[in-house]
């Protein structure tokens, strides 16, 4: 389950999947750029034997799209409020379709630029259906992403040959639901919509778990 920005964002879903008998690996997405992150996740996946269901939230959707066909045993893809880029497309191009734009803070670091969501606007953009304390905790623990995450072009369209599922939160203010519908329709994903924010795996973990288990079956 390549994650997006928070270290424990998928924990309620992981707990439910384990309770139902599914082995889970939560891959820490490096957020160094789509090309680099895809290589990292592909390398990790190659160490796992047997059938695999890849789950990607937000930017993680782009990573699993590119990594899925490079290893054996991937039986399905699950996009949770996820980006599903076509070959040659960048996350930046898809994100530009969402309005209003995410409130980002950029920082120059050795070798490039990193961004985070402005903590002041984090809850409204990312976690509107979570309580203020939880949203504030997520805001201050988010990991910065290299801007290459949005500028590296996507290369492989895993959804063309691997069945895909998608969950769209109707109150998502990070990736406009209309943009998500465009991507899921283009990918031919079996799509479910629920009320919730971009942090849907925390606010609606049961819905996320159900979709993953549908894909696994």
UniProtKB/TrEMBL annotation:
Pfam families: Abhydrolase_6
UniProt keyword Hydrolase, yes or no: yes
Cytoplasm among keywords: no
Stretches assigned to the AB hydrolase-1 domain: 15-209
Record's keyword terms, sorted: Hydrolase
Gene3D superfamilies the record matches: alpha/beta hydrolase (3.40.50.1820)
GO terms of molecular function: hydrolase activity
Full protein name: Alpha/beta hydrolase
